[in-house]
Amino acid sequence: MSLKDLRDDYDLPALGVGKSTSTGHFTSQVAGVRKEGETVPALRTDQFHLGSNTKAMTATVLALMIEDGIGNLSWTTALSDALPAFSNISEANRNVTLEMLTSHRSGFFDERAANEADYRISLLTQPAIEGRRTIAERILSEPPAKAQGTYTYDNVNYVIAGIVIDVAANMSVEEVITRRLFEPLGMSTAGFGPVPERSNTSIDNPWPHTASLSGPTPVEEPLLRRDNPPAYGPAGRAYCTMADYDKFLRLHLDGMHGRINSSSAFNLSTAGFRHLHTAYSDPEVAYTYGGWLRTNLTGEDNYKLSHDGSNTMNFATAEIYTGTDEAYIAVTNAGSSTEVTEFSAALHSVINQTIHGTLLAY
Question: Average pLDDT for residues 172-199, to the nearest whole number?
């Protein structure tokens, strides 16, 4: 079955898949159009939105800052120490650690962001750091919404991790990721926000779409409304080409296999990468400190790291296999706030067919 066939079966505007092997060779393929109802084809060089796959990038630069001693941070640093200027942190939240944030064990859950559309819209016009402060001051002053130590996935964990980086680095987390991750890795197409367009009507990259009974519907909104609010940068606003995203995935393979040395452009230690790949102690959900879901496979140091990302208008997924030293990507410019499972199943199916079938065979 071809990628075009899969794209048609899943009724997606565009569908892309990429693969890199132990040699570092990367290949990719795209089928479909940038915007439903138009004929402009999607290209392998297009920038796709990564959604929550941004989280692993945030955790990776946090690990680098910890090793570099910036802000005297450690994975066990409590929020009361990381954010001393936040005087309204409730007693229950003072001892939440950075590890608890990045593995979604803080007990934080932003009910307003989940249920109040007007609140999310109000955040769209706030600058990134200002928006993060608005969110953090409210969440940190309230009792935790969920039991601390148990897994509750929520963007607010990485919003608050982002403001820890803002404060420690004295610059925005977006700028830190750009300087310390994108630039050293040569990820020249990477950035934050809606995928780049020259105007509200241009079709320079894959447009976002929402799911509907009649098929994918282009989001005909101003660029500002085609993504999460700026405050959510560290949680889910990154974009780049598949080839550039593979550079980040291969960084994690190289890092855990000890192929990075002190002269490398990005020199996090092997121990640092292994910590990012370590799951919080939980028999049910193996979510790591580095923003990945971990699945242990047969053999020593043989595991899969995976994650899905969506801003409800795009969808991306990645899988890393440490045993075979391979990385896989699948992306589409459509999403849904209610049919996440269906989109996830579709893209993981594409990766599965890439692994076991003829897609991208060489």
Answer: 97
Q: Which two tokens stand for residue 19?
A: 């693969």
Q: How far is C-alpha 341 from the geometric centre of its chain's CA atoms? A: 17
Take residue 165 and report the two structure tokens written for it.
Answer: 């980086």
What tokens appear for 36 in the block? 């439903």
Nearest to 264 by CA among 206, 201, 180, 333: 180
Q: Identify the H or E element spanning 191.
A: strand 191-192
3-state secondary structure 48-109: EEEECCHHHHHHHHHHHHHHHCHHHCCCCCEHHHHCCCCCCCCHHHCCCEHHHHHCCCCCCC
Q: Is-contact 151 130, C-beta < 8 A?
A: no
Give the three-class secondary structure for 129.
helix
Between CA 276 and CA 271 the distance in angstroms is: 9
pLDDT tens digits along 280-321: 987 789 999 999 999 999 988 999 999 999 999 999 999 999
pTM above 0.85, yes or no: yes
* DSSP conformation class of 257: T
What span, in angstroms and rounded, lies between the C-alpha atoms of 95 and 116? 28
Q: What are phi and psi of 20, to 5 degrees?
A: -130, 150
Between CA 77 and CA 84 the distance in angstroms is: 12
Say which residue the tokens 């974009």 belong to: 239
Whole-Å CA distances, 123 to 51, 111, 129, 250: 17, 15, 11, 34
